[in-house]
Specification:
With 293 residues, this protein is of the alpha/beta class. The chain has helices spanning 7-19, 22-29, 33-47, 63-86, 106-118, 131-139, 190-201, 215-223, 238-243, 270-287; strands at residues 52-54, 59-61, 94-100, 123-129, 145-149, 158-163, 165-170, 180-184, 206-211, 229-232, 244-246, 259-265. The chain folds into 3 domains: 7-88, Arc Repressor Mutant, subunit A (Orthogonal Bundle); 93-163 and 260-287, D-Maltodextrin-Binding Protein, domain 2, CATH 3.40.190.10; 165-257, D-Maltodextrin-Binding Protein, domain 2 (3-Layer(aba) Sandwich). Helices cover 43% and strands 21% of the residues. Helix 5 links the parallel strand 3 (94-100) and strand 4. It comes from Serratia plymuthica. GO terms for molecular function: DNA binding; DNA-binding transcription factor activity.
């Protein structure tokens, strides 16, 4: 009797190959690390070849694993296409995606457009808010997919990219200031809390010049010269970069640490997991592309 490839085993193989980690693959698939290990061992037994080289610190594909990779992707794609073609319930399916307002840059809009085009039979709803609010809605099961900057109290999630920050002011910003005119989002903003701690730690005198509103309001206030704003670099469009300058060195401001952007999901059915996989793939692919004017 021949062996048959289990689709969940193939999915586990692809996830380990993508993340180079059994632990991260387990977190992404919402199963135990032991469960992932068993699936990979079963797959290697069926194929009669080692698919990964394992060291105490690294996991990477063997030559046989590299050869099997495109075939595994094709198999999983065919599986999802078959499921979607017969699952008429997808016509009324709804998926809620929550995204941190520090993550939803202009490139991300293109990704969402691509996602909606590819999954036109699914009602995709997008909610943009602070990371703390998005995480709370996710934990209350109001959001299926949460994309946020990593919160110190919330571990896990699948890593997507690293977000860098800088201090920005208007081109015609005054050369000297006695107190730092700070522009930030509302009190609950994770970045605001981090910034205030940094300023206090480095003995910088500051005051709230402009607070609240969305990131568009923050950008407008900064361009008008109302103060200095800590901004995620990915948020700035080519036009923004012509109207704003990095003032970190001019005012001897502390470097803002970067933050990890991660995704959490409550996706249990095959259709939702397929959409999630496509979304993650688009984000990681976009991270490798340079910003275009």
């Amino acid at each position: 009797m021949g062996y048959y490839l289990d689709i969940h085993t193939v999915e586990a193989f692809l996830k380990v190959a993508e993340l180079s980690s059994f632990t991260l693959a387990a977190e992404s698939l919402c199963i135990t690390q032991a469960g992932v290990t068993i699936k990979i061992q079963r797959l290697e037994k069926i194929l009669g070849q080692p698919l990964f080289h394992r060291t105490p610190r690294n996991v990477y594909l063997s030559q046989e694993g590299k050869s099997f990779l495109p075939k595994a992707r094709a198999l999983l794609d065919a599986h999802f296409i078959a499921i979607r073609s017969i699952n008429m319930a997808n016509e009324n399916k709804e998926i809620n995606i929550g995204i941190s307002d520090h993550v939803i840059d202009h490139q991300f809009m293109f990704i969402l457009t691509q996602l909606r085009q590819r999954y036109s039979d699914i009602l995709i709803k997008v909610i943009v808010d602070g990371s703390s609010s998005i995480l709370q809605q996710f934990e209350n099961k109001k959001i299926d997919i949460a994309i946020i900057t990593q919160d110190g109290d919330k571990k896990g999630g699948e890593y997507l990219r690293q977000e860098s920050y800088g201090w920005y002011g208007a081109i015609n910003m005054m050369a000297e200031i006695k107190k730092l005119p700070l522009i930030t989002l509302k009190e609950s903003c994770r970045l605001r809390k981090l910034i205030i701690d940094l300023l206090l730690e480095h003995g910088k005198d500051w005051y709230d010049s402009f607070q609240g509103g969305g990131l568009n309001a923050i950008l407008a206030a900064t361009k008008m010269g109302l103060g200095i704003a800590p901004l995620p670099l990915g948020l700035l469009s080519p036009v923004d970069r012509l109207e704003l300058i990095d003032v970190t060195e001019r005012f001897n401001l502390p470097k803002i640490p970067s933050a990890s952007v991660v995704v959490y999901d409550n996706c249990l059915d095959l259709c939702s997991r397929e959409l999630l996989r496509e979304l993650v793939s688009l984000i990681k692919q976009d991270e490798k592309q340079p910003l275009t004017a």
